[in-house]
């Protein structure tokens, strides 16, 4: 299993441009997440999904959109990129959220480093 | 607003010593607690999770949880230079959908030769 894969690894955007960050998992996980991590900071949840066709906002959703048409894929769309969106973006997945179970563990992709100039 | 607090460090320990990493959280409803390790430029990887009060040991790592004090810690015995990384504490509560984690800002650990 490849686990969680993300593309691209690195991207430079100009202010106002748009792009899609791709995320794919091959573990048949129901739950998928997008986080951003700014330098010296923890991870902030942008959006998450509990299954195909179901998404919800996290802590910092403004400026982003997501879709979940399949179990495997969870793309993150940036519209009108701004310098404040310069960050490292991590996608993660977990099996489900049964409390007290190891299936809660989130597995992370390698990340996408985004620079908006 | 759920908060998870960690000392940012850096925490420096000599090789072979015990490293103690601490985390406090504000939401008393929190149920699950995770420690992730993150090397510079890499993604977080799970070290341990703990749900019940007390200690949980896995090799050189021991997680300690005290829900009454809203405190969770990670002990690393016989610290090695390869343990040098940032350690992220993450806390999950009871949610309606999805296991949303709240992360601390991480503690940087440096193990010196």
Residue runs with pLDDT of under 50 for 5 or more positions of chain B: none
Looking at how many chains there are and whether they match, the oligomeric state comes to heterodimer
Sheet of most strands of chain A: 7 strands, mixed
Calculate the terminal CA-CA distance of chain B, rounded to whole Å: 41 Å
* Helix/strand order of chain A, N-terminal first: EEEEEEEEEEE
Sheet-strand content of chain B, in percent, reads over 45%
Compute the number of strand runs of chain B. Answer: 11
* N-to-C CA distance of chain A: 36 Å
Shape of chain A: globular
Structure class of chain B:
mainly beta
Low-confidence stretches of chain A: none
Q: Total helix count of chain B?
A: 0
Q: What does the main sheet of chain B amount to?
A: 6 strands, mixed
Helix content of chain A: under 10%
**SS elements, strand count of chain A:** 11
Q: Of all protein chain pairs, which has the greatest interface, and how many residues does each chain bring to it?
A: A-B, 29 and 25 residues
Name the average pLDDT of chain A.
Answer: 91
Can you characterise this structure?
The complex is a heterodimer of chains A (117) and B (113). Chain A is 0% helix and 48% strand. Chain A contains no helices and 11 strands. In chain A, strands 2, 4, 5, 6, 9, 10 and 11 form a 7-stranded mixed beta sheet that branches. Chain A has a 4-stranded antiparallel beta sheet with strand order 1-3-8-7, with no helix packed on it. In chain A, β5 (43-51) and β6 form a beta hairpin. Chain B is an all-beta fold and 113 residues long. In chain B, 0% of the residues lie in helices and 54% in strands. The chains are: A mainly beta (117), B mainly beta (113). The interface between A and B is medium-sized, with 29 and 25 residues.
